[in-house]
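Think of the structure tokens as a kind of shorthand, similar to the way a musician reads notation: each symbol stands for something richer, in this case the local conformation of the backbone. In the example below we present two proteins back to back. Begin with the first one, reading the sequence and then the tokens, and try to describe in your own words what changes along the chain.
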Amino acid sequence: MYPRGMSQRDISSTIEEIYGFSVSHEMILDITDHVLPELEEWQTRPLSNCYAFVFVDCMFTSETSMNQRSMPFIRFWAIPWKAKKKSLDYD
């Protein structure tokens, strides 16, 4: 939610609205501060030039915010020529 532009307070109120428990915006800030460096490292990782197989899977989930809408969760799996299967999305 944070990379999509929601503030820590917005995320806190959304979690309370969806899941029914409260999380302080300070806790959201601590979590994003821990996760963002790892996410940035993942986004800049090197990719192979060629993969033997690439699989794409998609699952739709409901977003329960102001408006009810379906959001896709897309997963990419790739198998390089001489390596094991690995996920190209964020695990």
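Once you have a description of the first chain, move to the second and do the same.
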Amino acid sequence: MAMPHFKISKLLTNTDITTRKLELPTLILEYIPFMKGDHSMDLKAADIWGQEWELHYYTRPTGQKCPVFTTGWRQFDEAKRLQVGDEFIFYGHQVRVADGELKMLYMIEVKRLISMTFQGESNIITLDVEYLA
């Protein structure tokens, strides 16, 4: 059963940036479980501007579970110009839709550490990659 809300994050690796998949922390399986017998599903996640990104969520059908986003990840990666070391954040929260049913809404964002110098003082700040384009 899905949780009312969750948040997971990870630092992006070279593999995440250069391949067509994003390896997810296995903790996500607790929050977005597969229906019995299934090992993949499509879901939509909105960025901070409300643009929806369709992502294919997949894990191996047998053996060790290794959840990934496949189809759709590369488009997001290229559109946002992601870099190794960026922090990927994926979260969801339940909302009640017009017919009274509960639905999970997913959000996706990526943050980057930036070094800035102001008045001779060097600082590290975190910015959403949306503002760096």
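Compare your description with these statements about the second chain. The domain at 5-131 is CATH 2.40.330.10 (At1g16640 B3 domain).
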